[in-house]
Structure formats: C-alpha cells, structure tokens
C-alpha cells in the first residue's frame, strides 16, 4: 500500500484519461493505495470520482483556431511561475500532511519539484517525454517546432527522478537508467469493450479544427461517417455529427473501418489497440502530434498530412492500404497498463 500524490496536466482530457487508467490499474492490483490528485482544468474530474483533489495552477497549452497559440501559452505560464516559490511551498505542506510515499506526474510542473525538496521519489508517467528522453526522429520540416517543444518539455516538465514513457512507438531511451518505454496506457472502458469488429463506417474526431476544411476531406469518403468534436448537428449526406458520448464513441470506434483524427496519442493508441488504421492531420505547431503522425506512417499503420487541404486526395491511397496496415497493426503490442503498474509498484518505498 502506498500514499500517492499524483500531479496531472488538465488542459485537455488526454492526461486525465491516462492518469485515471494508471490509477485504476494500480487499484485493481492493490485496492489499499491512497491518492491525492493535484492540478487544474479537467483534473477536477477526480473529485467527482471520489478521490481527494487539490486544485492547482496549470501551465496549459492554449489552442486557438486549430493550432497552438504560443504567446497566450507563454503569457499564462509566466503569470503562474512568477509565484512559483509560493506554489511549491504550499504543495510541500500538502504532501507532508498527506504523508506521501511517492509522487507521480503526468506533465505537471509543481509536484515533482515539491517532491524533490522533500526527498520523496517522483516518477513521470506520460507520453511527451518520448520526444526528449528517447532517440526519437524529427519529422521533416519540423526543426523549429522541435526545438521550441523540447525547450518547454526539458525546462518545465523534466524534474522527476525517473520517466516511464507510454507510447505506441518506442525508440531507444537516451538514458536507460532513468527512462523506460512501454506500450500505451489504455483507459478502462476501452479495455472492457467487446472484441473489435470491422464495419464500413469511419470514426472522425478532430479537436479545434476547421469544420469547413474537414468537410472537404470527408466529401471524398464513400462510407458512412461518424463525426465527433463539433457537437450534434443535422446530418449532411453520409456525414452524421454526433453528440459527445464516451460509450457511443467507443462503440463506433470498435466497429469502424478506420479512424480520422488529429495526432493525439490517446485516440491513436485506442484505435490501434482495436485494430483500426488512422489517417491523421496533426494540429499546427503541436510538435508531439506531428511526431505521432510521422511514426504512424513510418510504422505502416496509418498515414498523415500536415495540411488538411491535401486530405481529400489521400483517401483513395489510404483505403488502398487498409489491409496491409491492419496486418501490421496486428503484429504490434498496444497495451502497457500492467507492465507500467508493475514498474511503478517496484519503485514505491517499502514499509
């Protein structure tokens, strides 16, 4: 049994979803673990689930008009970090009162720094460190994007003692003594789905993009389309706009022919786990998504374009490769929950 302070980035659902999956897997293995979650934004969802939760300032990545807004992201971070010392001291007090044994962080700034000052071991469990802590290749034309992204990850989010990286692609770690790579962490509703089926429809999920540009891509698809991310709207031909629904989305994904998305790691990983190739259009200036999309194509399990305007012309070549991509997907492992939970347990201080 361990008392765990868990710092989570809450600027979107991905970090919270991964952290919840880690938590659920740890509790399945030992229900006596106790958790205190720290963060802002969607991290408050943990309170609704009955976990102890401490709201904390969040260095969020601001996305506007379908791409990262660098100045707004920097301005938000600066306004928080100017009171950095005060925030860390308050968190140290919380960790002492909670009698924390270990700190886990998923791309959160304050928790590993407070843990270090208290001598509490801290472990990073996320995907982002594949870019900085492994021998990850850079997509062509993304050098400036890579440099700016690496500076952010190294400067703000690399204060942990160890790094357990969850990724559908796993380059060699730069330092195997501190960094280990594992298959993706999957949320419980995905793991509990019935066996995948191969239907004719396509699942589409695009966050923060232009609906007008997306529709030009979808017009080239001669299949039923289940579109999420734009709310419920009147159907347009073979395009059905669906209201947000976790159960509905996962059932549509389970029975889909393939998926179209940005380059978010969680959705790509879930699609691959269910045997679905992915056509990706990474969000502008979001370097992690560009890397994810690059490796999809490199591994032969998907395709991508940095320009959604080119998407319509990609549908035919993508569908021509579906069978080959499905075969390649079947040869890989896309489930890492148990392996990561086991490694975390081995790093927890013994009573």
From TrEMBL:
This is Teichoic acid biosynthesis protein. Pfam families: Glyco_trans_1_3. Coiled coil: none annotated. Gene3D superfamilies: Glycogen Phosphorylase B (3.40.50.2000). One of its GO terms (molecular function) is glycosyltransferase activity.
